[in-house]
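yo

u said u wanted the structure for the complex thing, so here. seqs first:
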Amino acid sequence: MSSESPSDPPLLRVEDLYKRYGDEEVLNGVSFDMDAQDVQVLVGPSGSGKSTLLRCVNRLTEFEGGRIALDGTPTDEMDENDLRRQVGMVFQDFNLFAHLTAKRNVMLGLRRVRGHSKEEAEARALEELEQVGLGDQADSYPAELSGGQQQRVGIARALAMDPKLMLFDEPTSALDPELIGEVLGVMRDLADQGMTMLCVTHEMGFARQVATDIMFLEGGHLVEHGPPEQLFENPRHERTAQFLDRLTSLHGGDHG
Amino acid sequence: MAERAAGTDADSASGSRARFGDRDVGTLATYLAGALFWGWIFLRWLNDWSGGVFVPARQAFVPPSLFRGVAAGVPVVGGAFEALAFAFEYAPALVNALWLTVVLTVVSIALGFVIAVPLAASRVYGRVSAWVSVAYIELLRGTPLLAQLFVLYYGFPWLTRFFRGLPGVGQGVLPGQAVFVAVIGFTLNSAAYQAEYIRGAIESVAPGQLVAARSVGLSRVEGVRFVVLPQALRYAIPGWTNELVYLVKYSSLAAFITVPELFRAAQNIASSNYRYTSMFVLAAVLYLGVVVTATNLMEYVGRRVAVPGISGGEGR
Amino acid sequence: MPCPVPVPGGLSADWRYVFENACYLGDGLAVTLALTAASLVVGFAAGLPAGVAEVYGRQSDSAPVRWVGRAVRNAGVVLRGTPIVVIIMLAYFSFGISPAFLAATAALGFRSAAYQTQIFRGAIESVGAGQMEAARSVGMSKYQSIRHVVLPQALRRSVPGFQNEVTIVLKDTSIAFAIGLAELLTKSYDLFQSVGHTTAIFELILVVSAAYFVLTFAANRSLEALNEAVSVPGGERG
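structre next:
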C-alpha cells in the first residue's frame, strides 16, 4: 500500500457492489479499495464474477447496487467515455481492431478520443509499441501477429490513453503456453514503473511476485483479501487454501 | 454464388420479441392470418372453376356495396370504407389471376429442379460436361430474364404455334399457349440459379464423405446419389427459398408475353378504371402474402428435414 | 463508338439492320449503364444507414430509435416481397415520378436499398462484439466506434454481397421496359417489332444479351479485384 495522507481518497473505491443477470446474482456486495501503484490480482472459480467486476469498473457493464469511485469521483457521475479514457482495459481475446495495423490500433484512440494530430499520435504509438517490445511490428496487421504479440499491442493501445488504472481480464488465458511469458513480462515491467493494475489472472507465479494484494472471489462474494504471503501461507478460509493449491499446481509455472 | 440472397427474412419483423409468450401469440396470429388468406383464395378458385357455386365467377362473396357510402364524409374512416369497397370489388379478379402466378412458380421451380441437379453435379464432378454446365449457367445468369422470355416468345414463333395446336390448350383447365412458353422460360432460367445453389451446397459437404462412401464399396455415382446429395440438398434449402421467392415475384414478367397472371390482370383493370395506385397496391398485397407464406413454409421444411445435431434446422 | 457505325459488306439483311441501328442501341446501353449506376448509388445511400439502423436500432434504449429500426425492417420486408415491375409501375403512375428514368431509378434504387440493408446488416453482425467493446474501452463514443471500427470492417465484408447486388440491378434495369424507358432491351424490342424487321430478333437479342453478359462479367471481375484490394493482410480474425 502506498503512503499517502489518510484524507486522500483511494484511487479506486468499490463499495457494496451488486450485479445480477436476470435471476442470477453475479456480484453480492463486493467492497475493496485500491491505492495508486497497487497491483491487485483477482482470482476465483469460473462464473464467480471476476470479469463482471472489471467491466463494472469501466462501465462496460452497468450494475444495480453500490458505488464505484475513481479518485474520489463516483463513476456514475462521470461521462462514460471520459471514465474509459482514464481506465485502460486488456481483453482475454485481445480484440485488436482487425482492419488496422498495430500502429493504427494504438493511434485510433489517440486521434479520436484525445484529439491528437496524426503526427503526434503516430509518434506516441511508436513509443508505446517500443515499450512493449514491438517497435519492429508497427505496420503488421493483427492477423499477421502471434497471440502474444497481439496481446502486447492490446496493452500498448490501452497505455497510450495515459490511464490511471489498468484492467486485465485474463490476458494470458487465450495464449499458447510458450507465449504467456512475454505478456507477463510486459505486465511486470508496468508494475515496476508504478502502474496501478487490477488483474484477473490464474498465473500464480505472477501473483506471488508482483501483486500487492490478492482477492479471492467466489459466488459473487469477496471471500478473502490480503497480501500474497497471507493468502498463500496463512489463508483464513479453507476454501481459499483449496482453490489456491489447485491453481498453483495448474498455473504455478514461473513464466517470464 | 448467393445471388438473390437475403430475401428470406420476411418474418424477422417479429423476431425481436424475446419472451416466449409473445412469440407464441405472434406465431398463432401468423398461422391464423395465413389460414384466412389461403382459405379465402382456395374458396375463390373453387367458386370460379365451378362456374360460380357460391357467387358468379370473379364477384365478391360479400357485395362491395355494403361498404360503399358508409361513413361518407367522415375523414379517414370514410376513406377506409371506400378503400374496403374497392378491394372487395376488384380482389376477386386478381385472385383469379393469382392462380396462374402460382402455377408458373410451382411448375417452373419443380421442372427447374429436375434440370438443376444433374447440372450442378456435372459442374462439380464432370470433365467436358462441367464446361457445358458452366456455359449454360453463366449465360442464363448473365442475361436478363425478360430478354430470355422475348427470345422464346418472339424469336421462336413455332413454339407458340406448337402449344396452340395441342388439344385442349386454352380451353377448360389448360391455360393458353403463352403460359407454356413462360413455363419453359422460367424453368430454363431457374435451373441455372438452382444449379448454383446446389453446387454451393455440394461443395460444402466434406470431401471425406465421398471418400468414405467409396471405401464401403459404393460407385462414384452411387456415392454422390446416396451420400453427398442427401446432405447437400438440405444445405441448399435457404438458397432454394430465395429462388422460390424470386420466382413468385418474377413470374410477373410473363405479363410481357401476354400471360394474364396477377400483374397483367391488375394492369388491365387499372387501364379501364384508371385506379393505378389502388390496383397495384392490391396486387402487391397478394404477392406479399404469397412470398411470406413461401418463406415460412420453407423454414418449416428446413426444420423438418434437418439432421439432428447439424445446424441448418436452427440456421441464420 | 463512331456514329453512324460503318456497315461491313456481305452481311445478311438482318445483321445489316443491327449495324445500321448500332447508335440507337448504343444510346440504350448508355441509359442502362446510367440507370444501374444511379440505382446502386440510391441503394447504397439508403441501404447503409438502414443496415446500421436495423442492427443498432433494436438494441437501443430510446423508444423512437427502436421505432425507426422497426419501420426500416418492415419497409424492407415489403420492398423485398413485391415484384420490381409493380414497384416501377407504382413509382411511375402513382407517385407520378417523371421522367421515366427517375421513376425507374427510385424504384430500382429503393428496392436495392432493401437488399443492401440485408447485406450490410449481415456484415455488421459478423464483426465480433469484442471489437465494439474494445473501441468503447479506449473511450470512443458509440457513434465513433461504429464509424471507425465496425463499419470499416463490415464494408470490406459486404463486397461479395454487393457484387451480387450489382449484377441483379444491372439485369433488372431491363424491366423499366414496363414504363417504356428507352434502355437497351426496350430499344431492341422497338427494333424487332418494327414492320419488316421481325426476323432480326435473333441478331438483336444476341447483341443485346452479349452486352448484358459482358457488363455482368466485367462487374463481377472488377468487384472481385476490389475485394482483393481491400482485404486485410493475413485475413481477419475479428
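Chain C touches chain B through 47 residues (CB under 8 Å). The two ends of chain C are 48 Å apart (CA to CA).
cya
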